[in-house]
Description:
- By secondary structure, the chain is mainly α.
- It folds into two domains: about 30-85, no CATH class; about 105-310, MetI-like fold, CATH 1.10.3720.10.
- It contains 15 helices and no strands.
- The chain has helices at about 1-20, 35-65, 65-70, 85-90, 105-135, 140-150, 160-170, 175-200, 205-210, 215-225, 230-245, 250-255, 260-270, 280-300, 300-310.
- Helix 6 packs across helix 8 (about 175-200).
- The protein is flat.
- About 30% of the residues are buried.
Amino acid sequence: MANSSTLNTTAAGIDAVSDRVGSGPSGRKPRKVISQRNIILYGLLGVAALYYLVPLYVMIVTSLKGMPEIRMGNIFSPPLEITFEPWAKAWASACTGLNCDGLSRGFWNSVRILVPSVVVSIAVASVSGYALANWRFKGSDVFFSILIVGAFIPYQVMIYPIVILLRELGIYGTLTGLVIVHTIFGMPILTLLFRNYFTSLPEELFKAARIDGAGFWQIFLRIMLPMSLPIFVVAMILQVTGIWNDFLFGVVFTRPDSYPMTVQLNNIVNSVQGVKEYNVNMAATLLTGAVPLIVYFVSGRLFVRGIAAGAVKG
């Protein structure tokens, strides 16, 4: 009886499979690799990529050519003889005004501006965003509204008052003053990002930690911080890009001996004395933009994750 029941079950299963096979394939029809949608999509992406890659290609090949080859006029041709002399000159001996020590001095000035500005602004903004998201205090909504308004105030409107303030404090024209300026102007948008990110985290974690007796700093350091790597990467990339590429604040709030790299790049490219050395200009431009590019390429995936999690939500 058992064998007969097993045979009947097996036969029924075979009949069911045969019926499905006989009725044809089931499920969604696979998409064609070559379709009108894919052609349009990849065509637009290819055009956008060429729009950014062609100027970069011209800059790279020009920086590797000598001036006699550049004067031949074909900017798209690869170098017949590769030379790194323009790069060496841009770094160590190009004239940036009265000084002819290249971009090296400006590079280290930019590093001294960048590191404390990024560290302080992210540290303060992360704690502020955490407090606004999880700890309701009197006046928190007003404080958050002020930060939102501050994120959209044009920088140019506040330059003159800040100059007067830094002069009265005795730090105008110093790297310390510029660090303070970058830290303050980075606070509103960073606080908004951190606040929205912490709001998106499960509230049950915060409540459970409160029930267990954890305080403000324990929750932040042991629970929130380990889960916040993507938004910290977003904040770092935004600050590194904005501070490193800044020209306006660098030329207004510092003096020639403490100019950042971007100001010295402007002095090299816009120099009106002597022969216009396009290969040196291109090499100097690539050197100046190398730091934010490297930071983005190293942490690009986390940037996409963090910017989606920290987006403005209703």
